[in-house]
Structure formats: structure tokens, C-alpha cells
Input
Amino acid sequence: MELDSPAVREAVQALARQALPAFGIALALLLCAVWGLWRLVQHYGVHRDTSRFSPLAYLVAYLALGFGLIIGAAALFAEIAENLGDGRKLGQLDLLFSDTLRSTLPTGAFRVFAVLTHFGDTLTLTSLCIAGTLWLLRQRQRGLCLGWVLAFVGNALLNRTLKGIFERTRPVHDNALAFADGWSFPSGHASGSVVAYGMLAYLLVRLLPARLASAHLPVVALAAALAFTIGSSRVFIQVHFASDVLAGFASGSAWLAVCIVALELRRYRQRQP
Output
């Protein structure tokens, strides 16, 4: 089915009219996926002294998982970018979704998302980066500190480069509660939130005391929910198209996978005699 067919356009409009329930369902599915993956990791992927698997086996599994995530995210990003190229298919659906959402979204929901989006602002993420850096230095975790800083800086450079390549203009947004300038594709809030809160969850899972192991899953789930909500908020307040946010999630997930796999590789090498 073609992206510009009448059936697809009607489906896009219907989704925009029910955007809030759709967001709730998507968030619930995401949390279920996080729970399921966590159970798999706990059963097969968490290294224990009594495990029959060697550290090398765990490293290979982490590398394979990270490589798969990178490939999947890159494929999603490439597909979105390709369908934006002619200015007729995905771009028109983006505009249709945004226009329909603007006319149907309740004012109260708009105000809530206009607040939540600030958790992905440059100032917020920069402050988080500085606070995390100071904490890791105090814990004498210099390797993790370097990985933490490079995750933020690398994602910022990647997003700026991609925006400069595609140079996509933002949707029209003429309200007093939300304003953004610069290019639109991909969303920096989406990619930055995935990397920032994903890395924060990774560090907390690694560094929290063993007595707080029960908090690991809530930490990961909260990070995933927060990143997803921040990215989605950019669509709800109409400063980004939906494809901008999807591409931001893809690029951010790929870079997060690169950073975590690199840190796990370093961790493995430190364990070797």
C-alpha cells in the first residue's frame, strides 16, 4: 500500500484524533517490552560467579545484541530519510498528522506535554551531564566518566551533523508555550533523552549497591518511559513531525548501544589477567 493512498491518509488522521490513547498504549507496550527483556537478561545475561557461561560468552552476547540494535536503528533511520526525500509521501503524512493533532488535542494535554518536554532541553541534559561527571569522579570511576561524557558529546555532534545534512524545516507552531528554532530532522530531544537517560540507567544498574538490586528494573523502566515521553512531547506540542521523533529515537538508540557495548568491552578487558 502506497504511503499517499487515501486509506493511509484516513488512518493517519484517525491516529491523530486518538493521539492520547495511542500514546498511552504505546507507552504500556514499551514498558512490557522492557520488563520482558529484563527477565531475559536476568535469566540468561547477568553474570554471576556461579554461572556456567564465561565472561567472553557474555561479552559476545552483548556485542551481538548491540550490533543488532545498531543495524535495526540504522535501517529505520534510513527508511524514514528515504521517504522524506521526494517531499510527497512521508512528508505529507507528517503534515497531515500535525495539522489534525493541532485541531483536536485538548489544551490541558498540550500544557502537560509543554512542561514534560523541558526534561529533554539542552540545559537540562547539560546539567545532568555535569552532575553525573562530578558523581563519577567522586566515585573514582574515570573510565565510566569518560564514557558518560562521550555519550553526551557524541550524540550532540551526531544530531547536529544529521540536521545539517537534511535541513528539514519544522512544522508551524505559533503558540506561547512552545517554540523551537533550527532544523527539524532528526529530533535532538528524542535522541538526547534516549542517550542521557539510557546511560543514566546503565550507570545506576552497574554502580548501585547489591542491596538495591530490586531497584534496577524500575530504574530502567523509568528511563525508557521518560525518554519516550519526552520524544513524544515534541509531536504533541507541534515543534517536530512524528518522523523527526522516530528518527531521533533510532539515532539515539544506535549511539546508546555503541556507548554501552564499548563500556562492556572495556569491562571485559579489565577482568582479564
Q: What stands out?
A: The longest helix spans residues 55-84. Residues 68-271 form one domain. The mean pLDDT is 81. The chain is about 75% helix and 0% strand.
